[in-house]
């Protein structure tokens, strides 16, 4: 069994047992401006999505498959919610992400299901779930249930946006508010990369699993970021893919 190891002087897994945080394992003292900005961007993205659906009474343009994957991500990641207290901030954010993810799934698949675009949301999520599960079993920090589930959530989150991007490629456009949601969601992980760079130089902390998955997730957003800046920000119109 291949187990990755962190570049850290102290016992890495002993520290992990103390805290499994929102998406990057840090001790409470590891909070910095980049991590705070990343968590804020993630929070804003979810609030934009919920506000968009509630105000318009519609989930048009949103991938229900991506939202189910995100709900799975948070469920697998926060199995320790009731057993491992780190801080009030940490616990509140975990509860928020869990509740909001399942709330979003409820709104899309039940309350506003008549507006859900099933014809364009056709990405096969099993192509993401199965590899993430297998790789989590092979490459992890420790072969325990909580650890493997955390690792699975990191791998799955890195590709969970693919059904949404696939849907965008099929429809060819997205409302401005949907584009804002996707930008904030992509920015969240990009800011976490800056957090990891900062922690590496200030603490010699390095988690290869989270870093590699985070880079992959950011790369998937690259084309969208370019279109967002050139179409939505500069031209102030809905995001449309080039013909």
Automatic annotation (TrEMBL):
It is found in: Endoplasmic reticulum membrane. GO terms for cellular component: endoplasmic reticulum membrane. Belongs to the ERD2 family. The chain crosses the membrane at residues 62-79, 91-110, 122-139, 145-166, 178-197, 209-229. The lineage of its organism: Eukaryota, Metazoa, Ecdysozoa, Nematoda, Chromadorea. It holds the Pfam family ER_lumen_recept. InterPro entries: ER_ret_rcpt. This is ER lumen protein-retaining receptor. It comes from the Eukaryota. Keywords: Endoplasmic reticulum, ER-Golgi transport, Membrane, Protein transport, Receptor, Transmembrane, Transmembrane helix, Transport. GO terms for biological process: protein retention in ER lumen; protein transport; vesicle-mediated transport. It is a multi-pass membrane protein. One of its GO terms (molecular function) is ER retention sequence binding. Its main location: endoplasmic reticulum. It comes from Parascaris univalens (Nematode worm).
